[in-house]
Design goal:
The structure holds four protein chains of four kinds. By secondary structure, chain A is an alpha+beta fold. Chain A has a five-stranded antiparallel beta sheet with strand order 4-5-10-6-7. Chain A has a four-stranded antiparallel beta sheet with strand order 11-12-13-14, sandwiched between helices. The radius of gyration of chain A is 19 Å and the shape is globular. In chain A, α5 (about 85-95) runs antiparallel to α8. Chain A has helices spanning about 10-20, 30-40, 75, 80-85, 85-95, 100, 105-110, 120-125, 225-230, 235-250, 260-285, and strands spanning about 1-5, 25, 45-50, 60, 65-70, 130-135, 140-145, 150, 155, 160-165, 175-180, 190-200, 205-215, 220. Chain C is α+β, with helices and mostly antiparallel strands. In chain C, α2 packs across α5. Classes of the chains: A alpha+beta, B alpha+beta, C alpha+beta, D alpha+beta. The interface of A and C includes residues 26, 29 and 104 of A.
């Protein structure tokens, strides 16, 4: 394996594109280093993108925030602006791994690793986050939900990588929340998870809802049927129950060492309902 | 302290209350600074010039015949200096040793996923890893068996032939290596007296000790057959015995030095990589370092038994147990495993019973060879018993502590495993729990309180200690048991107490195998008891020598000199008028009064004294997810005299948390292919700091009559009660009984939903 | 396989080393620079025994490539005491008997120091969650938490 | 004579008796006598046994005295932990 740390986007693209063997991008490294150690990944070239100018930046953009691909969970969590606007995304990112892993792990890496249990991904999908991708064919923006294809596979072409992720602007009375279930209180991979983003009108009626579920399908599920149960309601018990049922119905999990099918289908409803209540409270607190 | 008579004393056993000066205080540990600064040297921290890196090739199958191993391509790789297989080891001298060897390196058959098959030593880790890929092993994959109940069936795949117990019942598998029973009294009459009888079946998963330090060693063997081995182990003398046996060496030619040890809990009481490193070093003629990775630790070292147990207990309406029976089935991996004995003997040890029987089997499966884990066999035997008692308390509407007190073993009780108990602390711990504010605190919704008793035998065993008096009056103690939780501090304290000098004047070190007589493994909670006892006697030996020198100096009878608070003094007015001599004064002139002064003691210590504990837990269940939150936890344990209370508390807290992990989340998970699915800390979920509340430790000091200071072992009992305490707490919180460990959230949620 | 030359600042001193691309910072610390205070308990970021700080951020050195340390500042357990003066946390770990075997201790100390630099007055719950990535199998964590809380109080007072 | 209690599954070797009498004054003599009188016990004794004498467990202490009225209980050898 060779290691390169280019100091420009163009140099990084050139390295990635011209590598005849397997190349991988290194950001926080919390997934790729484990894969290297266990032999699950054996790239010929590892391209460290952290020397690229701006890759650590968090900038305001059209009322939202653009988060550089190398921004660690710990750094993002310290950003008061993003935290106020997208508390659910922040809490999801902060759940990736331990404090130590937080010092390195990135949203972009979490997305590209394409695990259905990735903590930040349901929250980002609920937030309609947009990834900014560079590559040999130029730059493009891509909704985050289009990036993971199946466990461990993403849609980026050879030579492409993410330089930043945009968390868009929000109207008033809008907020989000993320909950996951793990057997312990820390250090586990989500057995099931739910990210909920809501917009309320001035009377507290839900006008927009996005509900994304993790670890219940090969990729994160955005469940429109669940969202529809909330729109037009004040998230009363009936609406929440219907939403929970829609989540359970949409879930198509596997049973494995981390949880049974039955458990995942049950608990995803519980978490989605709890997350929706939290998002509602947060949105209401803004008015 | 009591003045010691110096002439011809016999070891006094515990003689009642005394005012300790050093024992019972909390001085800093001698290895403390090294451990908070990163200087302490653990197993993987030593290197040697020209050192090679050793790595092991492991079986990808649960059970397979090894038809051939072709190592030629690996040997041809540049940088590879030696390759070994089972052919490079001698036949062991006895059956248990042969099992240990065959576990280190598969002979003929790979018996479990991860079983070592071959090993290489190379100039770098990278080359070693490449070399492993070049070893060609031709396997004939065989049917495998993982669960104890399957392995008992007559048609089960045979893990190893020829190991069947003589007395195993007909119609069951050859995998049964032990059938045993213990107990007394008439069960039929006993059950006839009961108002309520219930019988339940309980299952536990195999768990791992989970020490944070992987197995590691550095071996050097020369062409003259002399060898040195540095390794993290609980017993370097046993490592020496096994390695010398496997390599055909004389014991004197192998010196084993124990590194600082990063946790063991029983799992470092045997060998895994050490003989392999020596064999690689012998072949390569260079030092070889081997360090397991975490996956290897889970796959190839450690796990406990898993179990399937039926318990039947009869109780009167007022809570008296009239009869009790248990049928235990343990699997301890691919080799015969005697842990069932401890399970059977401990299952009902907490109770005074007229009619009791515990019978059980050990069965082989295609899993790693069981290694001891803190009170081996006892947690999974006592868990079902305490579960049935708790369920009876609920059915009969009785207070669970009251019922346990009513049936508690006490002095004079004929124990369920035979002997009659001397002074024991169970009643005291139960009464302390009853009075503790914890037991009286009201519970909220979805909350439950669990109670359980626990028990462990405690060991004594073979021990050697030397105590060297230095010219400045300070003392060096040489002992031979790796310090796994602060024992150097407690040994120094006991020596200080006995000599009557300050703790700071003493330094205790752990000797290598050539520098001190034999010592048993650090196991069975034996060190503070047995090494402490030998240290006290070594101190008395030194005191006697000092008194003798002083008697000569004063020209009086040896019997006329007594030792008090670090001074030799005349025994009384009749002995004459002499200025007391301090240890420093005696030491300063030792060379002129007969030469260096040292005390020694070698003993096979008995009289360890059993230990009981009671745990209380309050917990809350999330009815939506089945998650358990522990709200409050209190440990009550009879510790005998607590030499260093900080480390006694530490043992109680640490054991409790290991038991909590066992109860809630820890387990070996196998797929239908017999492969271990969770060989890592990510999915083998040991408790983390945020999972836990403070663990309150209440020490009860019921002196052990078998030790001069009343010391009992304290290290193991604490892992026993959490299994049932949590199970009982969860069962009460959700209103349904749980019968299986771990109580992972999917299982709890399923039980809640019926 | 060509080696990579790295210049970095380690416990305040400039250090240079050659590393292979796949070598981790932990490998280099332990095997090349002889700083064996950082321990390898898992190699996968699940135990925290190899904790160090990288430009002030707490990380697992087993999840950092040695090559990535170019131009960065690394602090390890070996840099924690000031000469013969222990850091408050080190002293409190001794005072509270917050270690039994001691293998996890360096990682806990480095992690706890990073916490107190960020949050000098943490609640017990905050300490427990911050340290959840550091596994200890001996103590049940109780005395470790007490030691960190006590050190925090002392450092605030000092 | 000393009364020795044997555990349940060993009673096959003692004709079903839970207690047997041997003529012994020490730990070692108890074992020697047991082997001679009940050869079926020998395999277990060879594997290793402890003796609880008046409540104290002795592992290999051959010369430990045993009195005629001592409570003597045969137990498996206590190792590993």
């Amino acid at each position: 394996m060779r290691y390169a740390a280019p100091d420009s986007v163009s140099e990084a693209i050139k390295l990635l594109k011209s590598e005849p063997g397997v190349s991988r991008v290194l950001a926080g490294g919390s997934d790729i280093l484990v894969q290297l150690k266990t032999g699950m990944a054996a790239p010929d070239l590892l391209v460290d993108i952290k020397q690229i100018p701006g890759i650590y930046d968090i900038t305001q953009e059209n009322g939202g925030y653009r988060v550089g691909a190398a921004v660690s969970g710990a750094a993002l969590g310290e950003h008061a602006g993003v935290k106020a606007q997208w508390p659910g995304v922040i809490e999801a990112v902060e759940l990736i791994g331990s404090t130590q892993v937080q010092g390195r792990a990135t949203m972009a890496g979490n997305l590209c690793n394409a695990s259905p249990a990735a903590d930040s991904v349901p929250a980002m999908i609920a937030a309609q986050a947009i990834a900014h991708i560079v590559g040999p064919e130029g730059e493009r923006d891509c909704p985050v939900q289009d990036i993971p294809l199946s466990p461990g596979r993403n849609s980026l072409a050879k030579g492409e990588f993410i330089t930043s992720i945009l968390l868009p602007a929000r109207p008033e009375n809008a907020s989000d929340a993320y909950l996951r279930f793990i057997p312990r209180t820390e250090m586990d991979i989500a057995v099931v998870s739910a990210g909920v983003s809501l917009e309320l009108d001035s009377s507290g009626v839900c006008t927009v809802a996005r509900i994304a579920l993790g670890a219940v399908a090969p990729t994160v599920l955005l469940v429109d049927a669940a969202a529809e149960c909330l729109i037009g309601t004040k998230l009363d018990e009936n609406a929440l129950d219907a939403m929970g049922k829609a989540c359970s119905a949409a879930a198509n999990p596997i049973g494995d060492k981390r949880g049974t099918i039955e458990f995942r289908k049950d608990v995803v409803a519980v978490l989605a309902k709890r997350a929706a209540k939290i998002a509602q409270t947060r949105a209401g607190d803004q008015s | 302290m009591l003045p010691l008579k110096c002439g011809g004393r016999k070891m006094a056993l515990y003689t009642g209350k005394r005012n300790f000066k050093v024992v019972g205080t909390r001085p800093p540990r001698p290895d403390g600074i090294d451990k908070v600064t990163g200087r302490a040297l653990f197993g993987a921290d030593l290197s040697a010039p020209g050192m090679l890196v050793g790595q092991i090739l492991r079986s990808p199958h649960a059970h397979a015949r090894i038809k051939s191993i072709d190592t030629s391509a690996a040997e041809a790789l540049s940088g590879v200096k030696s390759v070994v297989t089972s052919a490079d080891f001698d036949k062991a001298s006895n059956s248990p040793n042969q099992d240990a060897l065959d576990n280190c390196m598969a002979r003929g058959k790979a018996l479990y996923h991860g079983h070592a098959v071959a090993a290489v030593a190379a100039t770098t880790a990278y080359v070693a890893t490449q070399a492993l890929k070049l070893i060609k092993v031709d396997y004939n994959v065989l049917p495998h068996v993982i669960e104890v109940e399957d392995a008992m069936m007559a048609n089960a795949p045979i893990v190893q032939g020829g190991r069947r117990a003589d007395n195993a019942p007909d119609g069951l598998s050859e995998n049964i290596t032990h059938y045993m029973s213990f107990g007394h009294g008439g069960l039929d009459e006993g059950f006839a007296k009961a108002d309520k009888i219930i019988e339940r079946t309980f299952k536990t998963a195999a768990t791992h000790q989970g020490y944070i330090e992987p197995h590691a060693c550095l071996a050097t063997m020369g062409p003259d057959g002399k060898a040195d081995l540095w390794c993290c182990t609980q017993g370097h003398y046993y490592v020496r015995e096994l390695c010398a046996d496997f390599l055909g060496m004389e014991t004197s030619q192998l010196r084993v030095t124990a590194s600082e040890i990063g946790g063991g809990f029983g799992g470092k009481t045997t060998v895994f990589i050490e003989p392999v490193a020596l064999a690689l070093s012998r072949k390569a003629g260079k030092p070889v370092k081997m360090v397991m990775n975490r996956e290897e630790v889970f796959k190839a070292s450690g796990p406990t038994v898993s179990s399937l147990t039926d318990v039947k207990i009869g109780m009167t309406k007022d809570g008296r147990i009239t009869a009790a029976h248990a049928m235990l089935r343990y699997q301890g991996g691919a080799f015969p495993c005697g842990t069932i004995e401890f399970g059977l003997m401990s299952a009902f040890a907490a109770y005074d019973l007229d009619a009791v029987q515990a019978e059980g089997f050990n069965v082989m499966t295609n899993r790693p060879r069981q290694a001891a884990y803190r009170a081996p066999g006892a947690p999974v035997a006592i868990y079902p018993v305490e579960g049935v008692i708790d369920e009876l308390c609920q059915i009969l509407d009785l207070d669970p502590l009251e019922v346990r007190l009513k049936n508690a073993a006490r002095k004079g009780t004929k124990s369920s495993y035979g002997p009659t108990f001397d002074d024991i602390g169970l009643v005291a711990t139960l009464e302390a729990a009853q009075k503790h504010p914890h037991y009286l605190t009201p519970l909220g919704p979805n909350q439950g309180r669990g109670v359980s008793c626990g028990f462990w035998f405690n060991f004594g065993g073979n021990t050697s200690v030397s105590l060297n008096l230095n010219a400045d009056g300070t003392v060096g103690i040489v002992e031979g048991n790796p310090d796994i939780g602060g024992s150097r501090a407690s040994i120094s304290q006991m020596a200080a107490e006995e000599l009557g000098i300050p703790y700071e004047k003493i330094r205790t070190v752990i000797a290598d195998t050539n520098s001190l007589g034999f010592n048993d493994v650090t196991d069975g909670s034996r060190v503070t008891f047995a090494v402490g006892l030998a240290t006290i006697k070594a101190a008395q030996d030194a005191v006697q020598k000092m008194c003798s020198r002083v008697a000569k100096l004063w020209d009086i009878d040896e019997d006329a000199v007594v030792w008090e608070d670090g001074y030799a003094k005349p025994a009384g007015p009749n002995a004459g008028e002499f200025e007391p001599m301090s240890i420093a004064e005696i030491a300063a002139i030792a060379n002129s009064t007969g030469g260096p002064i040292a005390g020694h003691h070698e003993v096979n210590a008995d009289g360890a004294g059993v230990s009981f504990g009671v745990h209380l837990v309050d917990l809350e269940i999330d009815p939506g997810t089945g998650q358990t939150t522990i709200l409050r936890y209190t440990v009550f344990q009879d510790a005998g005299k607590a030499v260093h209370p900080d480390y006694v508390e530490g043992q109680m807290q640490g054991g409790a948390v290991q038991g909590i992990g066992w109860a809630l989340n820890e387990e070996y998970i196998y797929g239908p292919d017999g492969l271990l699915q969770n060989p890592g800390f990510l999915d083998y979920r040991i408790p983390v700091a945020s999972d836990l509340p403070p663990i309150e430790a209440v020490i009860l000091e019921i002196p052990n009559p078998g030790h001069p200071y009343g010391v009992r072992g304290v290290g193991e009992t604490s892992i026993v009660p959490p299994l049932a305490a949590l199970s009982n707490g969860v069962s009460r919180a959700i209103g349904h009984r749980m019968y299986e460990l771990p109580m992972s959230p999917p299982k709890i949620l399923k039980t809640i939903k019926g | 396989m060509s080696k990579i030359h790295v210049t970095t600042t380690l416990n305040g001193d400039q250090v240079e080393y050659l590393c292979e691309p796949q070598e981790t910072l932990l490998d280099i610390l332990r095997n090349r620079l002889n700083l064996t205070g950082s321990k390898e308990g898992c190699g996968s970021g699940d135990c925290g025994a190899c904790s160090v700080t990288l430009d002030g951020r707490l990380v697992c050195s087993c999840l950092v490539l040695a090559a990535e340390a170019e131009g960065r500042e690394i602090e390890t357990i070996e840099g924690m005491a000031d000469g013969e003066n222990l850091h408050s946390l080190q002293q409190k770990f001794l005072d509270h008997a917050a270690l039994q075997c001691g293998i996890c201790t360096p990682g806990f100390l480095v992690a706890a120091k990073a916490l107190l630099e960020k949050n000098p007055d943490p609640t017990e719950t905050e300490v427990r969650f911050w340290l959840a990535g550091n596994l200890c199998r001996c103590t049940g964590y109780d005395k470790i938490i007490n030691a960190v809380m006590d050190a925090a109080a002392e450092m605030r007072g000092a | 004579m000393v009364k020795v209690v044997v555990w349940g599954s060993l009673r096959a070797a003692t004709g079903g008796a839970a207690e047997v009498n041997v003529d012994a004054a020490t730990f070692k003599e108890v074992l020697t006598q047991l082997e001679q009188k009940y050869p079926g016990l020998k395999p277990q004794i060879d594997r290793g046994v402890s003796l609880a004498i008046d409540g104290t467990i002795y592992r290999e202490a051959w010369f430990t005295p045993v009195k005629p009225d001592s409570e003597v209980v045969l137990m498996p050898l206590m190792v590993g932990g």
